[in-house]
Amino acid sequence: MSVVARFATLGGATVELQTLKFATRYAHGSRHLGVEEQTVDGIVWDCRGCGTRGTAVHGDPYQAHQRDQATRAANAHAAACRALPTA
Ligand SMILES: [Zn+2]
């Protein structure tokens, strides 16, 4: 995992946008379920204040082509989250 962006929350914590690889049967952004799992590049966001992890549908990470969507969601969470930093 590597952090590619950070957003400051209202409470002073950070929301980190992180890349990762994960196994999915929805490869290459397809909405159709594939037969075999494939490892793909993905992205999630984690709020260090309240512990929320932002994912795409069904709890799967966003896929690489959904980075803009993940970025907007992370920024929207930061703009609303009032949790204080935990450590
Ligand atoms: Zn939060």
Describe the structure.
By secondary structure, the chain is α+β, with helices and mostly antiparallel strands. It has one domain (2-80). Helix content is 16%, strand content 37%. It has one helix and five strands. Strands 1, 2, 3, 4 and 5 form a five-stranded antiparallel β-sheet that branches. A hairpin with a 5-residue loop joins strand 3 and strand 4 (53-54). The longest helix has 14 residues, at 67-80.
Ligands present: zinc ion
Q: What is the beta-strand fraction? A: 35-45%
Mean pLDDT rating: 89
What is the terminal-to-terminal distance?
20 Å
What Rg is obtained from the alpha carbons, in whole angstroms? 14 Å
Please tally the helical runs, counting DSSP H or I stretches of 4 or more residues.
1
Q: By helix and strand content, what is the structural category?
A: alpha+beta
Work out the helicity level.
Answer: 10-25%
- Topology order in helix (H) and strand (E) letters: EEEEEH
β-strand number? 5
Question: How many strands, what sense, and barrel or not for the largest sheet?
Answer: 5 strands, antiparallel
- Overall number of domains: 1
Given the C-alpha coordinates, what overall shape results? elongated
Parts with pLDDT < 50 across at least 5 consecutive residues: none
